[in-house]
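Please check these two lines:
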Amino acid sequence: MSAPLLTGRRRLEIVPCGRSSWAFDLRDDKGGSGGGFRPYRLRRGGRLRVGATAVSLHGRPSSHEGWSFSTPDGRRVEATVAKDATALDGGWEFEVVLQTEEPLHALLELADMLALGCWLIVRWHSAPSTDHLLTADASGSGFSNWSQPAAVAGIF
């Protein structure tokens, strides 16, 4: 079950690598690989890649809602999850707030990456409550299975 990733005029598909994995590939409109996400084995987060650009996504150990993106050149973008209980149908709606010391235009090349990362963060927070750090799937390739339908992600 894939989900579209929309950033500006670009559209990619987020495709799960397996039924019980938190690893995802990105596919362009021709089906070619455009990157993806590979989770860390024993901690919250993983490696994101879009095209030739790669960043790390880390869950802050002191905060369930806190995340950060870090680039190989040392730039950081902090991400915090806010939950809105007023969503329709009794569910939850999540908003990911990004903060950085960099001017916004300096991060435009990371728009696809940040959109994918925010989609993953919301998916993580929407998953049923379990200890994701300790529920690696049987193959060791990711976290426990969660089969909720994927939603659209994007930076518009």
